[in-house]
């Protein structure tokens, strides 16, 4: 039997959406998964019944190393303001800035895990002028550093593990925690932003239900249209590293399946694209955000050929709010 794996989950500058997301883990659910992996959830601000005094006593026992801490999970950005004092987020019942508590626990924990893009990179909490001086655990946007510093490694010789997403997918969290509890996660399984490759070795584009429209560059022109949203409506699915369309939310959903363009929420600085999320910036009519691993000249050439060969069915359906011509229908059968 695996040894008991103690996990502490804290929240800082965020909305709590990642906790809501992990509660949607299914078959098994979150708590069954933790039990099966012998993960002992010491405390969670929303799931635990313990009072403030119970939590402070637990914190004291962890910091004095009476209770071992195998993994520290942080949800939400680290709030450093104002002027580096941390007084925008103080730990209730103490005179300590929350960032001081996080920093202390990270030095004790075997692993430190960022739950969601805010904890990983600063995320939405860091957007705009950032008056709260928000940052991630080991990144500030796409620049390494954050609270813990560029070269920091945990006691198990891993950097912060960034389970990025806004919110993050429940299965990404459960899978990563299970791997850690079983000792099966090493640095080779993290990508260049320290995200688990179990989901970032894929693109959101993989499994997209609009892929046929993408292949023929049959593009949607308004949000209700059925066509590909890359050319006009800001979709970044060909660049976003995540498996949202093959590992569906609640077994059947994803942003694209719901009719929403992918905004690449697993990436640092997704929150400030310098243009409207639902618009695709272009130069000379060519989208700036092309597939990450395809030369621009090739894309332009293939797009021209694809558009020339687009079947009428796709041309019509792409700019319609429902399927008007089914595969194999004759033109006179159009709805």
Based on the model shown, name its key terms.
24% helix; Cytochrome-c3 Hydrogenase, Chain A, domain 2; alpha/beta; Rossmann fold; 2 domains; two-stranded antiparallel ribbon
Produce a short descriptive summary.
This protein has 335 residues and is of the alpha/beta class. 24% of the residues lie in helices and 11% in strands. The radius of gyration is 22 Å and the shape is elongated.
Describe the 3D structure.
- The protein is α/β, with parallel strands linked by helices and 335 residues long.
- A hairpin with a 2-residue loop joins strand 10 (282-283) and strand 11.
- The protein has 2 domains: 5-198, NADH:ubiquinone oxidoreductase-like, 20kDa subunit (Rossmann fold); 202-321, Cytochrome-c3 hydrogenase, C-terminal domain (Cytochrome-c3 Hydrogenase, Chain A, domain 2).
- It is elongated, with a radius of gyration of 22 Å.
- 24% of the residues lie in helices and 11% in strands.
- It contains 10 helices and 11 strands.
- The protein has helices at 17-22, 30-36, 52-63, 98-108, 117-121, 170-181, 197-200, 211-215, 296-308, 312-318; strands at 5-11, 39-43, 71-75, 78-79, 111-115, 134-135, 139-140, 143-144, 161-163, 282-283, 286-287.
């Amino acid at each position: 039997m695996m040894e008991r794996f103690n996990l502490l989950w804290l929240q800082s500058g965020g909305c709590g959406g990642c906790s809501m997301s992990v509660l949607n883990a299914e078959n098994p659910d979150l708590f069954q998964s933790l039990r099966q992996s012998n993960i002992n959830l010491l405390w969670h601000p929303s799931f635990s019944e313990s009072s403030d005094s119970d939590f402070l006593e637990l914190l004291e026992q962890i910091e004095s190393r009476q209770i071992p801490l195998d993994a520290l999970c942080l949800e939400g950005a680290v709030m450093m303001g104002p002027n580096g004092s941390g007084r925008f987020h103080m730990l209730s019942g103490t005179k300590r800035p929350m960032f001081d508590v996080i920093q202390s626990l990270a030095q004790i924990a075997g692993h430190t895990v960022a739950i969601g893009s805010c904890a990983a990179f600063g995320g939405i909490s860091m957007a705009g002028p950032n008056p709260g001086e928000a940052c991630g655990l080991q990144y500030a946007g796409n620049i390494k550093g954050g609270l813990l510093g560029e070269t920091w490694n945990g006691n198990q010789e891993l950097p912060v593990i960034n389970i990025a997403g806004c919110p993050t997918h429940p299965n990404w969290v459960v899978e990563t925690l299970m791997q850690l509890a079983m000792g099966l996660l090493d640095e080779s399984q993290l990508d260049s932003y320290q995200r688990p490759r179990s989901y970032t070795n894929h693109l959101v584009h993989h499994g997209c239900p609009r892929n046929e429209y993408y292949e023929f560059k049959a593009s949607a022109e308004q949000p209700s249209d059925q066509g590909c949203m890359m050319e006009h409506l800001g979709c970044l699915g060909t660049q976003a590293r995540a498996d949202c369309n093959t590992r569906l939310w609640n077994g059947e959903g994803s942003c694209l399946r719901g009719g929403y363009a992918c905004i690449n929420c697993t990436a640092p600085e997704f929150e400030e694209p310098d243009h409207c999320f639902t618009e695709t910036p272009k130069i000379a009519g060519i989208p700036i955000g092309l597939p990450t691993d395809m030369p621009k000249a090739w894309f332009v050439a293939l797009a021209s050929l694809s558009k020339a060969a687009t079947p009428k069915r796709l041309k019509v359906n792409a700019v319609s709010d429902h399927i008007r011509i089914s595969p194999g229908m004759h033109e006179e059968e159009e709805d």
